[in-house]
Amino acid sequence: MVKRIHTIPLGQLLLERKEVSEENLAVALNEQKGTGKALGNILIEKHFASEESVYKALADQMGYKYLPTLSIDLVDTKVLAHLDTNVLRKKSVVPIRHKGSTCFVISDPSDDLVIKYISDHGYISYKRLLTTPANIDSLYSEIMVSDRKTVGKQISQMQKEGVDHEEGELVSFVHEILDIAISNDATDIHFEPEGHTARIRIRIDGILYEEPHLQIGKYDRLVNVLYGMAQVTVSEFRKFQDKQFTTETTMGKKVDVRLSSIPTEHGDRASIVLRLLNRERSLSAIGKLGFSKDSYNKIQKVIEFPYGMVIFTGPTGSGKTTSLYSILQELRGPKIKIITIEDPIEIDISMVQQVQINEKAGITFPEASRRFLRHDPDIILIGEIRDKETAEEAIRAAMTGHKVFTTLHTNSAIDSISRFLDLGVSRWNLASSLLAVVAQRLIRVLCPDCKIKDDISKYKELNIENSKTIYKANKKGCKKCNSRGYKGRTAVSEVFIIDDKIRSVISNSFNVDELIKAAKEQGYRTLFEDAIGILKQGKTSVEEIKRVVGVM
């Protein structure tokens, strides 16, 4: 049993450091009494304190050295090869070389089984090293990428060994593909039959990367396995499918998968897309999603207003849901009632009542929006405005003292006004209820380790001659970015604040040119202008701006 070095309780330590409020600590302590869960975990789950602050305090309390980051260069590969990587990742422990000796970095010093597992294999760590589970999990993801463990490698091995003889082995193959996709932060896996083969593509950072084709016979058996996991019956094989299931990968991660299939001309074989919904992923604060300072300040001002409607708009995969979840995380608390209606629920958020669309049971966007008001909410999230009925219910809620967040699929913030009016809602009601529209996209960030300088003179149409240096992706990439040239994404946005002058334009004439003129007077910046700001910071490339935002 690991003994505490400091006798001050963890909650008191965080309170003294001003990392948690007295009110939120009281809520967490009350939940701890009822559930027996670790206080630190409750504080993190409820986002009452950051993961880093909790683990720093825990390290001080237990006499460990806290490591804020872990580098793949520190990993003791010999020890890693000797032990079961799956067990280590599940237990959130990793061997590293520290000052010439093998040490183990852990995330839970109270887990005696971890200490026993290490000692049973003949390893004793004299250094007490602690970091967050997220840091360890991220490191294992990087290890998988650096080992070049790809879907292509798994496909080649499967076809070589004829793995389709056993369904159990095919299930393992699916789990390995999911592991690889998750390790690369993929959002979707595409299986597309074409004649004698099937194409497999994985979407990472918004881009589809093609893997080696799968023989059609093996693809047919793979489809049967996927349908079995999603509980699709034989009689439904040749119909459109939209199913959701939960599975555990070979690395012990639970992942929600949404399977969508359509029959194709290739022998009635289904084309399948698996959307990966990682409900366990941690949410970042709205200020850490990459919004420019100007956009962030405007968003922050709007979400602090007690009532009214805020719309987030953009195509599928533009980050709307992540932004809204981060806002709800920031606004929730013991004195606030929040209800959502979503399709699907992508992340579970404590202290928020989340409702899943179920049309067969009569749970639809307009019906839920009506009934929500009877539950005395302060804040309502309507996953998407699809029709006049839902739009009118959202406006009614906003006009009766509620804060309403919702999404639309339009190309720009100003286009959202036209979209609402096209649905047939009252111009006056819309103008009276609307606070702001945020249009956003996700743009890839250049890998900082291999990006190269670009020639500014090639882009006269962008008017960026005053910039000192701009960069572009290295087409060969490097080990750090898995040879892609880009690593991660950031938000590009335009925030359209509805002030009195704009309300007047919407209510009276609704002239788009007038609307744009009034918006620019308040400092409105387009998606393109925001993207150019990211380019000048050296974070993205002209090529990526053209792909995501476009250049007129």
Task: Write a structural description.
With about 550 residues, this protein is an alpha/beta fold. The chain has three domains: about 10-130, no CATH class; about 150-275, 2-Layer Sandwich (Beta-Lactamase); about 285-445 and about 490-545, Rossmann fold. Helix content is about 40%, strand content about 20%. It has helices at about 10-15, 20-35, 40-45, 50-60, 75-80, 85-90, 110-120, 135-145, 150-160, 165-185, 215-230, 295-305, 320-330, 365-370, 390-400, 415-420, 425-435, 500-505, 510-520, 525-535, 540-550, and strands at about 65, 95-100, 100-105, 130, 185-195, 195-205, 205-215, 240-250, 255-265, 270-275, 310-315, 340, 355, 380, 405-410, 435-445, 450-455, 470, 485-495. Strand 9 and strand 10 form a beta hairpin. The protein starts with 9 loop residues before the first helix and ends with a helix.
Look at the structure and give the CATH class of the largest domain. Alpha Beta
Principal-axis shape: globular
Major β-sheet strand ordering: 13-12-14-15-11-16-19
Structural class: alpha/beta
Please provide the count of β strands: 19
Number of domains: 3
The CATH homologous superfamily of the largest domain is named: P-loop containing nucleotide triphosphate hydrolases
What is the CA-CA span between the terminal residues?
A: 65 Å
Question: What is the count of helical runs?
Answer: 21
Mean pLDDT over all positions: 85
Helix content: 25-40%
Q: How many strands, which pairing sense, and closed or not: the largest β-sheet?
A: 7 strands, mixed
Instruction: List low-pLDDT spans.
Output: none
Q: Could you say what the CATH architecture of the largest domain is?
A: 3-Layer(aba) Sandwich
* Gyration radius from CA atoms, angstroms: 26 Å
Q: Beta-strand level of the residues, as a percent range?
A: 15-25%
Here the CATH topology of the largest domain equals Rossmann fold
